[in-house]
TrEMBL record, chain C:
This is Branched-chain amino acid ABC transporter permease. It is a multi-pass membrane protein. It comes from the Bacteria. It is found in: Cell membrane. It comes from Thermus brevis. The keyword Transport applies. Belongs to the binding-protein-dependent transport system permease family. LivHM subfamily. Keywords: Amino-acid transport, Cell membrane, Membrane, Transmembrane, Transmembrane helix, Transport. The keyword Oxidoreductase does not apply. The chain crosses the membrane at residues 18-38, 58-76, 83-100, 106-126, 138-158, 178-198, 227-246, 303-320.
């Protein structure tokens, strides 16, 4: 029954779009990472509409097959295998680090290129036999931690406290931030954890305040990042408060209100695109994305996470065009996938919303710190560009 | 017949053109193992666990650490994984299986949450929430099991072995004892089952099975992180088991297959139905589960099973077990009760009762309501602990021993309301009696090494059924018996157990006159064969016609003892009963 | 640790504890009367403030449609005169929502009534047809509903948190907001009201009797389904008020309810799922314990809170020692 339905579905779709190029997408549209995954999903839905209108890539229709992994490793792996079998030319996703790591053996075994939308450096480093197939678009925690620590040093911060999610996100930040801070001579005086679902972080905040750090970094994503900050304010903490780029969405400002005034955070330059100097390389591309996204989903709806998905497509599209010239995807899918991978790796100076991508055999992140991170401050309930690193 | 399960191994061949279905097949096999571990725990032993995913995690992390950090072979990882799951089960089981009722499942939630947090925060050891990557594939005689196709043979092969082993377990004395324990721990204990030990063993077995699934999971994904071993995952497995039908092996397997497929099915169907991409899978999942539970509270399998032909097992033909037949000089004292005393919160229920029970006699313990007869009975049978006094069986002190120890010495009891296991056959009910006369342990039962002993046990039970005249009903479910037949079945179960001293608690309650007469003549003929009977009842007609001697109690004390005729004339007895008649 | 930190932690623990306490009482009540462990109580709790936010922005929340659909199913299942209550209730609820858009006092009322209606309808549609099922089957049903309601919550309200304005702003003393005082007051009031209800009202007494003994309750003239509806109604009412009062302090989101419910559940177990006062004290204990562990070992907080259960379970299990007959 089920296979019959799938067959029908596939048949129907292929009749509609003769030889559409299928691109697999795995995102966390539900579960703990939904706040990041939904804008990613929206971006692909928007892209699908655009491509349907404009006729796809190099005369070929493109079809995104989007599957939700519910922020769960097992689901992500299942989805990936399913996509591989449906004959996708590449897999984009997924939102979270552990699930992306779980997908690596699958794409490596099937020899399908993959562009992850998750943060950790572990996904693309070191580039070994398996990671040969894996790229990613978001800045690593390492890169963003560098921005934060540079900003802290510039402001004369000597001691710093960390409070982050008790999950892969908070753990990744703790690891790379603490390493970078130590390297630059900052002292991390206390490292606390809380859960996304916690209703109170009084205990952690009291412990932080007792150590009197110059600054506090909150390693959390979405609106749950507000709670520690508000509690710090209520306990009259007067030092600097840093957030991560995981909060760069409008809901954070809405829920945080005046409690998050003055927050400092590193972000991809797209967050403050219109404030960027006109010479900034990514400005035009970023404004283009924002305008398209807001046209579909409403003014002020864009977040930086959807832009990671957009960047993945910006990388994939020219690579597809080049690969299509070399290999016929309908004749030899395996060869096409391998060629596509090579062409992705051959990407040079590709201007995207979050930075300029240049991949190489050793570097599957491809971002330069100078273009990919800016410091932003919350001012009057809006994101305000604080500094660039160019 | 049961070897048809090996046909599952053909599935990878059939599905080989569809690699994705091979993936699903592997996930089905993994889920099926976990739900089978729940079958052992919930279906057989009546315990509920919210920590199966934690046991999986033990298996998965053990092999991940050994293979990644120490570079050892996955097969060593398997050994370590099973060992760690076993150790965890031993630790948790020792601490928790004695918990009663819903305290046990709730405590498993606690363990599950705590272990998940540990796995996520011991970053140096477990890789934290991010996890451990690059597990090696399993090699089998030089073949690398690195594709879904090859892996499916391993998982399905192990799954089929597991299914067969669990069928063996279900058909063995252990399986019967577990089922009995689930229904009624006291009744099970009265046939020699040590509830705590048996439950602990079931818990261990269940933990090891889940650990095996965890090992296979780790080498299939070749990546481990804590989320697949979370409370949510444990709940998911429990849902599969219950919705499929946790009481049977095909039931839990059906649940695993249904819900493994359902998730993907919903991914295909919902966009078609709703015409748009959305996040409706979990909603559909929850609602379908609700629907199943409303329409089939016992799970899907009982609905399917109705349409399947039932299998006739046939009557056992093996040589019965050699039980010690009740012999010894008639009239020798077999049970000695001295100065028994028991109070419940200040109320003296039994105040120093003494009497002897002699071989071959039928002794009746009677008295008005609240006289302390049942309490005395339970003190003798070991269901209650006396405050003072002694009980000796064949000269051995048994005071304060648990029922399962007393039973082993040759004393059996029945219950006021027949404690039978209605979903088992009459034969199996009777065979429960042979528990303490048979030896096979968990391992032998699982491996099917106890078949011969099992056949003899069933033959023994069948012989006992013949003795009480129930042999024609041997293969029926016990729920189809009339009250009178249930009483007879209880006697048959005692006979199959090899007990020589039979303690009967109001055995004639609810019987019709004709049934009572037959029952009485059965007891008399048993007594002639050398069985000794202690009977508690109010039914004066029955007692006066049946008993050789009578002990009368009132207000917790023995007020008279002697032949029925003498006792009837005793003014104290008359006063006690007259008092009651006035009330009635 | 100095006295200030200690007092802050105690206040924090108290505020969390009373909320767990109210949830624990609801869970104990529902369990005692219906044998259902009401896992989705956390979702019901969150639906109240989220629906409120939607109303205040002038939108009709998806929960309204959910409630009306379940109410419709309830009416169909009840038929005859029994269908009057869900139909009238549903129409009334719908009208109230139309009136309550952007009208704060009405919106609060509407949010509470919505959750109560939803709670009772949940019982009638999903649990009542399962009467006589095992506790395990009922629990699995509750889990299924939790999953479905959480999924619906995401569809209705999106993945992010919302923060309705507090009813009272500002702090009484450092560490205790006026809103926090409201939560404490509400908890005290509900405790008193529940006590009076069970102690003095005929229906309350009958409800307790129903929990003890179904047959006895029938003799007292209370039908088990009525008792179930009232138990679910009271539980939803407590959950709705708790949600509305808490949301400004903790931020409401579709995913926030489950953990709250689970902690309430821990407390309920500490009370043996039977004793109301012990469950409430257990909840306070959980609150304090959580507060202190988040100070001393925040990464392991959840693990420690749940392990607190184990000795308590042992104690309870020993106490519950009876002849298993």
């Amino acid at each position: 029954m089920k296979r019959w339905l799938v067959a029908l579905l596939v048949l129907g779709l292929s009749a509609m779009a003769q030889e559409a190029l299928k691109v697999g997408v795995v995102v966390s549209a539900t579960g703990p990472a939904a706040s990041l995954g939904i804008p990613e999903q929206n971006t692909f839905l928007m892209l699908q509409e655009m491509l349907d209108r404009t006729g796809g890539v190099a005369g070929r229709k493109v079809q995104f097959v989007i599957l939700d992994d519910a922020s769960d490793t097992t689901q992500a792996v299942r989805n990936t295998r399913r996509l591989v079998e449906e004959g996708v030319v590449a897999v984009i996703g997924t939102t979270t680090t552990p699930a992306s790591l779980g997908m690596i053996p699958v794409v490596a075994e099937a020899k399908v290129p993959m562009i992850s939308l998750a943060a950790s450096k572990d996904i693309i480093y070191p580039v070994d036999a398996q990671r040969h197939w894996v790229f990613k678009t978001p800045q690593t925690e390492e890169l963003m931690a560098r921005a934060i620590v540079a900003d802290m040093v510039a402001r004369g911060v000597k001691t710093v406290a960390y409070i982050g999610f008790n999950d892969a996100y908070g753990e990744g930040w703790a690891r790379f931030f603490e390493a970078e801070a130590k390297a630059k001579g900052l002292q991390v005086v206390v490292s606390e954890r809380y859960a996304r679902t916690d209703t109170s972080v009084t205990g952690q905040v009291l412990r932080i305040i007792a150590r009197r750090p110059d600054a506090v970094l909150v390693g959390a994503s979405g609106t749950p990042a507000v709670l520690p900050q508000r509690t710090l304010k209520e306990r009259a903490y007067a030092g600097l408060i840093y957030q991560t780029h995981g909060v760069a969405n409008p809901d954070f400002l809405r829920v945080g209100g005046k409690d998050v005034e003055g927050t400092l955070l590193p972000a991809g330059p797209i967050l403050v695109a219109e404030q960027l100097p006109s010479a900034y390389p990514t400005k035009r591309v970023a404004l283009d994305y924002i305008q398209r996204y807001e046209a579909k989903y409403g003014i002020g709806s864009y977040s930086t996470f959807g832009a990671h998905a957009w960047d993945a497509w910006l990388i994939l599209k020219p690579a597809l065009e080049r690969a299509l010239k070399r290999v016929d995807s309908a004749k030899d899918l395996a060869a096409f996938r391998a060629t596509l991978r090579d062409e992705i790796e051959a990407t040079r100076n590709l201007v995207a919303t979050h930075g300029v991508f240049t991949f190489s055999k050793e570097d599957h992140l491809g971002l330069r710190f100078e273009d990919a991170a800016v410091m932003v401050r919350v001012e009057n309930g809006r994101w305000k560009l604080e500094r660039t690193f160019r | 017949m049961r070897y048809l399960w090996f046909l599952l191994l053909l599935l990878p061949l059939a599905l080989s053109p569809f690699p994705y279905y091979l993936t699903l097949l592997n996930f089905f096999a993994l889920s099926a193992m976990v739900v089978l571990s729940l079958y052992v725990l919930t279906g057989l032993a009546g315990m509920t666990s919210f920590a199966q995913a934690a046991f999986m995690g033990m298996g998965a992390y053990a092999t991940a650490l050994l293979t990644i950090k120490a570079g050892l072979s996955p097969w060593l990882g398997l050994g370590a994984g099973l060992l760690f799951a076993l150790l965890l089960a031993l630790l948790l089981g020792a601490l928790t299986v004695r918990l009663k009722g819903h305290f046990l499942p709730l405590s498993t939630i606690a363990w599950q949450v705590a272990l998940y947090i540990l796995a996520g925060n011991l970053v140096g050891l477990t890789g934290g929430h991010t996890g451990l990557t690059d597990l090696p594939p399993i090699h089998f005689f030089g073949i690398s099991l690195d594709t879904g196709f090859r892996y499916a043979f391993l998982t399905l092969f192990l799954l089929v072995l597991l299914v067969l082993a669990l069928y063996n377990l279900r058909q063995s004395r252990i399986g019967r004892a577990l089922l009995a324990l689930r229904g009624d721990a006291l009744a099970a204990a009265s046939f020699g089952v040590d509830p705590a030990v048996l439950r602990l063993k079931a818990f261990l077995l269940s933990g090891v099975i889940a650990g095996l699934a965890g090992f296979l999971y780790a080498h299939f994904l070749r990546f481990v992180n804590p989320t697949p071993f979370s409370l949510e995952a444990s709940i998911k497995y429990l849902v599969m088991a219950v919705a499929g039908g946790v009481g049977s092996i095909p039931g839990v397997m059906l649940g695993a297959a249904f819900f493994t497929g359902l998730e993907d099915w919903l991914k295909d169907l919902l966009p078609l139905l709703l015409g748009r991409q959305g996040n409706y899978e979990t909603i559909g999942y929850g609602l379908i589960l609700a629907l199943i539970l409303i329409l089939a509270p016992k799970g899907l399998w009982p609905l399917v099973e109705r349409y399947l032909p039932s299998r006739d097992l046939g009557v056992p033909k093996a040589e019965p077990l050699s039980l010690k037949s009740p012999d010894g000089p008639r009239g020798e004292v077999v049970l000695e009760v001295q100065g028994l005393q028991k109070s419940f919160g200040g109320l003296l229920a039994v105040a120093g009762v003494s009497f002897d029970l002699r071989r071959g006699e039928i002794l009746a313990l009677i008295g008005p309501n609240g006289a302390g007869k049942s309490t005395t009975f339970n003190l003798v049978a070991g269901a209650l602990l006396p405050d003072r006094g002694q009980v000796r069986l064949f000269g051995k002190e048994i005071t304060g021993l648990p029922p399962y120890r007393i039973h082993a010495l040759g004393l059996g009891r029945t219950f006021q309301h027949p404690h039978l296991f209605l979903e088992l056959t009459v034969l199996e009910n009777a065979a429960l009696g042979t528990y303490s006369r048979t030896r096979a342990g968990f391992l032998q039962a699982l491996l099917g090494l106890s078949r011969r002993e099992e056949e003899r046990a069933l033959a023994t039970a069948y012989r006992a059924l013949k003795r009480v005249g129930l042999e024609s009903l041997a293969l029926e479910k016990a729920e189809r018996l009339s009250v009178g037949q249930q009483r007879l079945l209880e006697i048959a179960r005692l006979l199959a157990s090899g007990a020589e001293v039979l303690l009967l608690d109001e055995p004639a309650a609810g019987l019709r006159a004709q049934e009572k007469r037959e029952f009485a003549s059965l007891l008399r003929s048993l007594a002639r064969e050398g069985y000794t009977v202690l009977i508690v009842d109010h039914d004066m007609d029955l007692i006066m016609g049946l008993a050789d001697r009578v002990v009368v109690m009132n207000y917790g004390e023995k007020i008279a003892e002697g032949a029925p005729k003498e006792v009837q004339r005793n003014p104290l007895v008359r006063a006690a009963y007259l008092g009651e008649e006035e009330v009635a | 640790m100095d006295a200030t930190i200690l007092s802050f932690l105690l206040l924090d623990g108290l505020q969390n504890g009373v909320v767990y306490g109210l949830l624990a009482l609801s869970l104990v009540l529902v369990f005692a009367v219906t044998r259902v462990i009401l896992v989705p109580i956390g979702e019901l709790l969150m639906f109240a403030p989220l629906s409120l936010v939607w109303l205040l922005e002038g939108k009709l929340p998806g929960t309204l449609w959910l409630a009306l659909v379940l109410g419709g199913a309830w009416a169909l299942m009840a038929r005859g005169r029994g269908a009057l209550l869900p139909l009238v209730g549903g129409v009334g609820l719908f009208l109230l929502f139309l009136l309550a858009k952007e009208v704060p006092p009405l919106a609060y009322l509407a949010a509470v009534l919505l959750v109560v209606y939803l709670g009772v309808a949940t019982y009638r549609v999903f649990f009542q047809p399962m009467r006589g099922a095992t506790v395990l089957s009922l629990l699995i049903m509750a889990v299924g509903l939790h999953v479905a309601y959480q999924g619906l919550g995401l569809v209705f309200f999106g993945p992010e948190q919302f923060r309705p304005a507090p009813l009272l702003s500002g702090e009484v003393v450092v560490g205790l907001s006026w809103q926090g005082v409201l939560v404490l007051l509400f908890a005290a009031l509900s405790l008193m009201a529940l006590y009076l209800f069970f102690r003095f009202s005929l229906f309350g007494k009958a409800l307790l009797a129903a929990a003890e003994n179904r047959l006895g309750a029938r003799l007292l003239g209370i039908r088990p389904e009525e008792a179930g509806m009232v138990a679910f109604g009271i539980a939803s009412l407590l959950a709705a008020f708790s949600g509305l009062l808490l949301a400004p302090l903790i931020n409401a989101a579709y995913f926030m309810g489950f953990m709250l419910g689970l902690k309430g559940f821990v407390a309920a177990i500490l009370g043996g799922l039977a004793s109301y006062p012990v469950a409430f004290l257990g909840a306070l204990l959980v609150g304090f314990f959580e507060s202190f562990t988040s100070f001393y070992a925040s990464a392991y907080k959840e693990a420690l809170v749940f392990l607190l259960l184990v000795p308590a379970l042992f104690y309870q299990s020993l106490r519950a020692r009876t002849v298993e007959e």
